[in-house]
Amino acid sequence: MIPYTVNIKLAARTLTGTLNLQNKTAVDWGWQGLIAQGCHSSILIMDPKTAQTIQVLERHKANVVKVKWSRENYYHNLSSPYCLRLASGDASGKIIVWDVVSGTAHCEIQEHSKPIQDLEWLWNQDASRDLLLAVHPPNYIVLWNGDTGTKLWKKSYAENILSFSFDPFDPSNMALLTSEGIVFITDFSYSKPPSSAGKKVYIASPHASPAHTKPAPAAAPAPTGAKKALNKVKVLITNEKPTAEAVTLNDCLQLSYLPSKRNHMLLLYPREILILDLELSQTVGVVAIERSGVPFTQVIPCAQRDALYCLHENGCITLRVCRSTSAQEEAADPEQSVQELVYDLRSQCDAIRVTKTVRPYRMVICPVNENKAALMVSDGRVMLWELKAHTGRSVVNPSSGLSPLYSPVSFCGAPLGPNQKRIQDLSLNSMISQTLIAGEAPPPSSNQQEVQLKFLLTGLLSGLPLPPFAIRMCPPLTTKNISHYQPLLAAGTSNGSVLVYNLTSGLLHKELSVHSCEVRGLEWVSLTSFLSFATSSPNNMGLVRNELQHVDLPTGRCFAFRGERGNDEPPIEMIKVSHLKQYLVVVFRDKPLELWDIRTGTLLREMAKSFPTVTALEWSPSHNLKSLKKKQMAAREAMARQTVSDAEQSSVESSVISLLQDAESKSETSQAISAREHFVFTDTDGQVYHITVEGNTVKDGARIPPDGSMGSIACIAWKGDTLVLGDVDGNLNFWDLKARLSRGIPTHRGWVKKIRFAPGKGNQKLLVMYTDGAEVWDTKEVQMVSSMRFGRNVNYRILDIDWCTSDKVVLASDDGCVRVLEMAMKSASYRMDEQDLTDPVWCPSLLLPRAALTLKAFLLLQPWSGTFTMDITQVDYNEKVEIKGLIQEQLNSLSNDMKSVLQDSELSLLQRCLLVSRLFGDESDLNFWTVASHYLQLFAQARQLSVTSEGGSEETQPPSQNHLDICHDILCESSYFQKFQLDRVHLQEVKRSSYEHTKKCADQLLLLGQTDRAVQLLLETSADNPSYYCDSLKACLVTTITSSGPSQSTIKLVATNMIANGKLAEGVQLLCLIDKAADACRYLQTYGEWNRAVWLAKVRLNPAEGSDVLKRWAEHLCSPQVNQKSKAILVLLSLGCFYKVGEMLHSMRYFDRAALFIEACLKSGVMEANDSSNKLIEAAFLDYARLLRSLGLREGAALWASRAGSAGEQLMEELFQGEGGVPEAVLGEDEVEVGLESTE
């Protein structure tokens, strides 16, 4: 037998069921690694790795319509720790910001009383991370402080706002999806509301454009789906309001910016996804569904790769990855080589069976790794899918035209070591390598492996089925059954199955299909078996089929308890089991009751026709088992002595002995003893009858006349010397049987549906259920303890009640939930640290702030020992045992793959920092280390090359194998950024459809230095166009520019005059024509056009001039009114200003990041320890040592202090005072250096 520990204390919890339609959009997967989902008015918090619900938040009164986790894009320390903060909005317009770990609300926000349309935390500025933007219907946008609940500003718009999307690359841009079109806002700021009403853009529905309705000529081959869609969307976006017949209802389901490349946006329609380039407001790509395909309901664009997760109406999730443009050169038709962005279907998961009640609602994907998706189904199921990469050649037929996907050759941002362990499925960008762009040579295929992507179902959470429920808790815990007790709750459902939940963990223990119709009631007959009854719907005679089943849980065996009986008879009203579980009474509606023996399964008595109609019935807790046992023991002794002398036999009744001898020959004694038990019941007149059952004899006892003050009795409860009657008018009558007193109390709550006494000796609490709620009474004092009422303090009706322990009640309600509550019946969320989870959950945010930071430091660096350990007890860490235990639990819950990679000696410091920031879901760390590790390696390689070629020039950057992904935009290498921009203009050129578009393309080409192409476009202007003359002259100018002195100075003069007179764009163009792009950048920056200046610098200037422009931009970002220092740091990293980055990190008090970064710089040789840099190095190391000391990691603190010069020595003395001086391990500085080298 498995040793089973009993947790007597059950946590209050909620078992949830099916979702409400309003919960459809209420789901979010946070950077912290957990999924939040609204279910009616509660919010479930789920852990996707172990597929278990770890918290249920209850405070909303209306259905939850939106939930959003706060972002993790800030530096974490003790004052801004890792925490689980969630905002949720409900259908009555209330927003609550939660602290999820304690289950309490930070603040509650109410503006209007309509459902919240959209919520988002602002993540992109360093000033505050508490800002929450919400859409309050019909047309208000409000910015709140999510920590205090104060309103910062409010702005109204002309149309109803449906949702919004922020530009991930520029925090001042956002787009609103309104009922009529899209509104673009370009001046969003947290300090004041947007001043303008935004630029309005109307969407002509793709189905209404004339191209779509033209019949195709019969001879021409029918165009394929994608071509058809392209014809449709030639012009999609217009600034004029479309005419009435052209505009159908705006059926755009969703709009989102693409986080993988700047200035692109997707619009989702049921049958197509459109990709727009916002600079041209032009469609550059379409994902269309064939006629027989299943329509889209949602799409999530990825950031790490240009890929889309799409959810279809049948619950199928598909992954589409953007096709490389470079692979298309071999296409037979040169016209088609670059026509649009194509997203190829790379993987799809199985669909679900959609019925009236079961349909897919929403999908969310993991924001950290983008390789896991969760699907919410309306019946409360959550399906967890994971994307897996399989290496190996594809078996796809070559005619499908899909180019193979390759896996990257690096892990965590660095090339793989020869025998380094890695996790291929860590994240989307470690599974497939970048999409190639035109003009880029594909890497040699020798060292790359082809990969196939597959979805794997890794977890499933299911909820309760649809209400109504009948619930019953198993018999209570006693001293006798404590060794094997399990707190099981049986819930009978409307489809005839019985679900048994273990309330310690809240998980489904067993689901048994017992009946063919709705379960009406359950009674346990032992700790592991129960009886349940169900009645079918009545026929025209009012007769039904009754099913009464006996179920044995361990084996799942289930048999019809009443044998062949049950067809065409009046419905069963209730079943009642006696206290010793010997007898069962079955009460029918219009038929006398039956009395059964449970142990043998025999019918003892079917009452006569004249028997009164029963309205309520209860077994008495008193019985004569004890006296029988005593007699039995005496008889046993007598039998033992019988062989000695027959004289004493007379002292014991011979009848008992013979009875016992019979019994022992049949079976064990305990089974055969039939103790005497009683029950009472009332008839329609309120008369109380008393009946005794012993063995197979049934005796009629006393009758007590009705109490005049009571109406028709609806239920009875009996415990000890107290008997309680409840009637249909809401009166409770308390009888004290010892003192022979009765006391009636009117509750004025209407029909008393059920009354139940709490378990436990001497516990006289009583739970009463009414049609509109429930109450707990103390029958000793005869007074009410607590009450809940529908509409007053809860918004659900109660269907069934029971006690689950002596101080907790369990309620089934019509919102499909079963709640375990304290006796006060206040629905409260629980503290997560008090919970008993079956599987440990990896989520550092659950730890105390200090402990989470300790765990991070522990995973990042363990230089004090030659090997890397995953056991926190092996390090010198003085902290309370409980906290140590919690940290160790977190470490144990990591997967074995992850542990082996973390313990791998080949893992470099940079890779480790990246991996840990991924594990912690730390957005700001992840961005920093991704860029830092890329450029540190790049500049280290450049340094080695320049050393080897001795006299070689400094500026040549080595051809790096992998670029920084284009989602980092301006942080990418200039050469790569330039290629990407050319590729993009080329695409825009193919797609242009109006003079406006052509003019924009020509302007871009001139800035990019593609003069020949620009001239061709300028000459296309038609003669009746007002700017025909101007464009023609411009074309002449561009072709005849020579670098002779006078023409240059003239053009420069004209350009400066233009700029001074407000024609900035034209002046900048002229300057670019004469290769004065650096001046152009300076003018742009002077006029505050920072983004355009940076763009121009990246595509036109040589590295030296370019870095000047970018450094000026970084200074601007650091200025107090912009306050985006973290972005400035990334810009400086991309320029290789590593010393400046170290200084900034240290001055911003990012101590661990500063020390580890400087260490990585020293390691890769891009920074040297000399007199000028020593001051910074020592200061950074000293502060990191102090930080580690405050966290309690002494060895780590000693190590960093030993490298921090004289101030460090002082700290060492403080660390080890009273311990006989400094330990030898850290005496020699050189030795430590060597030690570090060897561990890396």
UniProtKB/TrEMBL annotation:
Keywords: Cell projection, Cytoplasm, Cytoplasmic vesicle, Cytoskeleton, Golgi apparatus, Nucleus, Phosphoprotein, Repeat, WD repeat. Gene3D superfamilies: YVTN repeat-like/Quinoprotein amine dehydrogenase (2.130.10.10). Its main location: cytoplasm. Coiled coil: none annotated. Residues 22-318 form the WDR11 first beta-propeller domain. It is found in: Cytoplasm, Cytoskeleton, Cilium axoneme; Cytoplasm, Cytoskeleton, Cilium basal body; Cytoplasmic vesicle; Golgi apparatus, trans-Golgi network. One of its GO terms (biological process) is cilium assembly. Residues 977-1164 form the WDR11 TPR domain. GO terms for cellular component: axoneme; cytoplasmic vesicle; Golgi apparatus; nucleus. Residues 486-825 form the WDR11 second beta-propeller domain. It comes from the Eukaryota. PANTHER family: WD REPEAT-CONTAINING PROTEIN 11. This is WD repeat-containing protein 11. The lineage of its organism: Eukaryota, Metazoa, Chordata, Craniata, Vertebrata.
